[in-house]
Design brief:
Largest sheet of chain B: 3 strands, antiparallel
CATH architecture of the largest domain in chain B: Orthogonal Bundle
Number of strands of chain A: 3
Number of strands of chain B: 6
Shape of chain A: flat
CATH architecture of the domain at 172-271 in chain A: Orthogonal Bundle
Strand content of chain B: 5-15%
Structural class of chain A: mainly alpha
CATH superfamily of the domain at 172-271 in chain A: Structural maintenance of chromosome 1. Chain E
Strand order of the largest sheet of chain B: 1-3-2
Order of helices and strands of chain B: HEHHEHEHHEHHEEHH
Number of domains of chain B: 2
Number of helices of chain A: 12
Number of helices of chain B: 10
Structural class of chain B: alpha+beta
Oligomer: heterodimer
CATH topology of the largest domain in chain B: Arc Repressor Mutant, subunit A
Distance between the termini of chain B: 52 Å
Strand order of the largest sheet of chain A: 1-3-2
Radius of gyration of chain A: 39 Å
Strand content of chain A: 5-15%
């Protein structure tokens, strides 16, 4: 007797074959009545009790869908055969190969009524074009570049580059260390259980400064100087400072936590509505 | 000239300009464009124009969106239809050559169209190529089919299935073609 697994495997293969068959009838415009529909549907019915997995049920649904398309094709086929345009393709193919080129051409010319169209310039469009041409500036005038202000070149000082925010006045690592110290101090002063609320730490007098602090905080967490503690139900985020930097890269799966620091949130925090 | 006659004469002139001169990539004018330019009685203007064109062996051809000829079209169907000026009668083989078609190429087009019609308007390109290869040199077959596609007689999908395109629907009397071929 066939095992259950073996039967499921055979059933899947049979359904795949039915799908392929229906597809080839559809794509190759074959006669849909060549297929024994009764037999196919009884196969689908026979194996239906075997399907337990969602994939198998999907396969069963697709087979039914393909068979339904086949019925639609059969109906279209009947409709087409009943119209005056219906011709047996084999009969026509035979005719087309039998009759000569000249005869085919003559026949086609009796049924061909080519479109008549003109392409001609009119006096009106010529006059329009002339008017346009007259008002068109010469290329050398149209492509004249904008006058560039002459600037003398010279070396930029470090202070100038810092002012233009090209250079920072401190190295990034130094800035990060200072920020970490600030976090530790704030945790000691305002924090409880070695942690501080996220907004209490990143929040500053101006929105720009707040964004800058949030940016630096993200590096503190990424580089292992601190960690985040999230309480999703209470919608609370805390920052916990480490005594020593820890590296998690390669030890455990790192996750990214997006935290929106919008101007609205900052306003709420300022008003004391956001914790 | 009575006021009414003058009214229609000017409308017919405008219709002639719209229909004869190509305004878009494809020739022909949509019904709604005609309504905009000629007014809501544009079907009547086209009817008068069609009668007038009879003497010149031309006609106003209406191609409906539904791909089938509609007996009594509604205004909505007319608005969506495309109108062309086509030849009313037939060309002689000599005339066909004069308008830039080689006999071989035109016969190939006739075969391709007839075969696709017999296959319910859709046929694999390979089958059409095989049929054409019987009477045309092999190197020319692919080129010709591409040309028929470029002109708008046929269209092809990503599965290399050929269908009849807008120009065949506008220019070819499909029923007459099949009947004539079968009577040979």
């Amino acid at each position: 007797m066939q095992s259950k697994r073996g039967r499921v495997k055979i059933g899947r293969e049979k359904l795949q074959r039915i799908i392929e068959m229906c597809r080839s009838v559809e794509e190759r415009s074959l006669d849909p009545f060549l297929i024994n529909f009764e037999e196919l549907i009884s196969t689908v019915r026979e194996y239906f009790p075997e399907w337990k997995l969602p994939e198998d049920l999907c396969l069963d649904a697709e087979t039914i869908h393909r068979l339904a398309s086949l019925i639609k094709l059969q109906s279209e086929w009947v409709k087409h055969r009943s119209t005056s345009l219906y011709t047996d393709p084999f009969l026509l193919e035979e005719k087309l190969t039998r009759i000569g080129k000249e005869e085919i051409l003559e026949t086609f010319l009796n049924a061909w009524h080519p479109i008549v169209e003109l392409e001609q310039i009119s006096l009106h469009s010529l006059a329009e074009s002339l008017r346009y041409w007259e008002s068109l500036l010469p290329l050398k005038e149209r492509w004249k570049g904008f006058p560039l202000a002459e600037v003398e070149t010279g070396p930029a000082t470090r202070e100038e580059l810092i002012r233009q925010r090209i250079l920072r006045d401190k190295a990034f690592s130094e800035e990060l260390e200072n920020f970490w110290q600030e976090l530790k101090n704030q945790v000691k002063e305002k924090g409880e259980n070695v942690k501080i609320r996220y907004w209490d730490f990143v929040g500053a007098e101006s929105y720009e400064e707040t964004v800058q602090r949030a940016f630096m905080t993200s590096f503190l967490v990424t580089y292992g100087y601190a960690t985040l503690e999230i309480h999703p139900l209470e919608e609370e985020i805390f920052i916990k400072s480490y005594e020593k930097p820890t590296t998690k890269i390669g030890k455990e799966q790192l996750v990214s936590i997006p935290i929106a620091v919008s101007a609205e949130d900052w306003m709420k925090w300022k008003k004391g509505e956001l914790k | 000239m009575s006021k009414r006659k003058a009214y229609y004469a000017s409308k017919i002139k405008r219709a002639i300009h719209l229909l004869f001169y190509r305004r878009h990539i494809k020739p022909g004018v949509k019904g709604w464009e005609l309504r905009k330019a000629l007014g809501s009685d544009y079907p009547k203007v086209l009817k008068i124009l069609d009668d007038y064109l009879k003497a010149l062996d031309l006609q106003v051809k209406t191609v409906f969106e539904e791909e089938k000829q509609v007996e009594k079209p509604t205004l909505e169907q007319l608005d969506k239809a495309r109108f062309y000026i086509t030849l009313r009668g037939e060309l002689t083989p000599k005339e066909a050559k004069m308008i830039g078609w080689r006999i071989d190429d035109l016969a190939g087009l006739a075969i391709a169209i007839a075969y696709i019609i017999s296959k319910k308007g859709k046929s694999p390109r390979k089958e059409v190529e095989e049929l054409l290869r019987d009477k045309l040199p092999g190197w020319k077959v692919g080129l010709n089919i591409d040309r028929y596609i470029r002109y708008g007689y046929l269209t092809q999908d990503e599965n290399e299935q050929l269908y009849l395109d807008w120009r065949t629907r506008a220019e070819v009397d499909q029923k007459a073609l099949i009947e004539l071929l079968l009577s040979k």
